[in-house]
UniProtKB/TrEMBL annotation:
Keywords: DNA-binding, Metal-binding, Nucleus, Receptor, Transcription, Transcription regulation, Zinc, Zinc-finger. PROSITE patterns: NR_LBD, NUCLEAR_REC_DBD_1, NUCLEAR_REC_DBD_2. Residues 126-140, 168-181 have a biased composition (Polar residues). Residues 141-162, 308-318 have a biased composition (Low complexity). Residues 29-104 form the Nuclear receptor domain. The gene is LOC109478499. This is Uncharacterized protein LOC109478499.
Amino acid sequence: MSQVSVLDVFEDMPAQDSTSFPDPVGAEGGDCVVCGDKGSGFHYGVYSCEGCKGFFRRTVTKGYVKACKSGSKCNMDMYTRRKCPECRLRSCRAAGMRSDCLLTQAQCRSKFLYRKKTEAPKSDHPISSPNQEVPVQSPSNQSTGTDVQQQQNQVSNISNQSEPCSLGQVSVPSTSSTQPFETVPEPVSFSQLNDSNGTNLLDEIMSSFMDFGSENPAVLTRNDSTGSDDMLSFLALLANDTQSIDENDLDPSIGLFDEVPATTPIQNNSSIEHAENLLSLQRGEANLVVQANVSASTNGQASEENSESSTSDTPTESVNQTTNTQGLKATLQLSPKHQSIDEEQATEEHTCSLLFGEGPGKIKRIARPDAVQNLSPEYQAIVSEISTFRKKTFARDHKMMSDLFKRSSQDISNKERQARFVAHMGVVVEKMVEFVKTVVHCFQDLCIEDQIAVVKASFFDCCMIRVPVVLANFNNGVHVLQRILQAVHTEVFNATLMKWYEGMLDLKIDMTTLDLLQCVIVVSPDRPNIKGRDILEQSYAQYIECLTCLLQSRLPREPLDVSTPAQ
DNA sequence: AAACGCTCGTTGACCTAT
DNA sequence: TATAGGTCAACGAGCGTT
């Protein structure tokens, strides 16, 4: 049976303006504009019957239809509509039905999770134990969506695979000391990431990311189905799940919080060392990695911590750390009332000292030391690889950020500030390309068009989650960012953006979780015009599962899982 | 070749959720 | 209230058997 993909059908049809919602097509109370049957309302942008509504939803979700045998010119009415799915789809498209009105998998998933959470009140022990062997599956009596069910089954199947280094199509390097990113082939270079029509990737990304002089920031109003909205809804859900987490709720018997002075690159990197050490310990390596982290703490004490102290805090230290729970927002001086305009007019030297040495701010991150150990070997490998990559690039990235901050403190015009910001974002794009090439396993399996589409579509999302967390590593970082953004965005947009950043900071997300989340974003299969969707879906399920396991291990009492309690 | 039964995918009316 | 997605009985195509 020959089939034709939905994308092919849509490409043949007249292109629709994807940047704005046209007026709904058809007359309310009339007939279906697709087949003439009795309409039931506006569905996906046109007045249509239940049949065409359901057909369009199923077909777009499925991604293909039976090919027409009569030259794609079948007449379409309420009697012949069942005869030729391809022509029916073309009629739906011609009538103005919009595929971007369908909820994406991520949105469905968010909806499912929200429903599940509201229907099942939080129990005392929703998760029996942070064990990766707990199957991720939904009870049949709670399943409300076949897609989600299939997705979870897929996740479950992947998690049950026996081969530790083979996850479907995704190969996972071993946890040996070799640096996996050195052997990863280079599927696409930054210079290659241009459209065939000559559009520059950076220009395109920046045009959607920035709104120079625009009264209506494109970022906030865009509806081009790049997946950002989906990720925002997902993150909103994630934020909703974790916002009530109190650090004191966590088990104090274990070193719960990695109190990271936000002053030196080395100390900011300590959570990476945590993971490394934990993995070393898990492998039974006798030699503990000695962390010679030279502290430049506020009292001037130089501290040396070895892996033992970093992986198993003493009870006394834990108590001290858990009781010292100043709000992150206050620490970062998010509120302008804590930071006068005069204070920000610091000299370059003063800025540097704030960034690297004498700042009082300390960031508390959730970093449950046993979390990584509870992961399955393949997920440990993923975490290890991410950590290794970040460890390798940390110093360079930190210097890049600090250079940006230093320059932002200089007394320059807004135009110059804009130019510098654009230049900086160019580097950020390159950095992201390097990340996906090195860390995201399935990336090399995608065709060049898909690689480009994936990077383009996920760049904004990644920036949205990374910026606030990265800035949390810098004293006064949020405030410096405000100065930069004021030069490139409108006031309304910046207010919304800062509100989003504030919410992200409330998550107290650690770098490993952040990088895992970035992997999830990058491989999100909801991107438009992706040919290798299957590849992305497999990888997506894998990263989701890994992220879920990690969060379950770190926050075992919080119902942020997509699985059910152990039977 | 025709009739029959089985499986599985599709349809659409109706439902719930937001 | 409008419009998403979900559900499930009914339907029909395809296939093997008689």
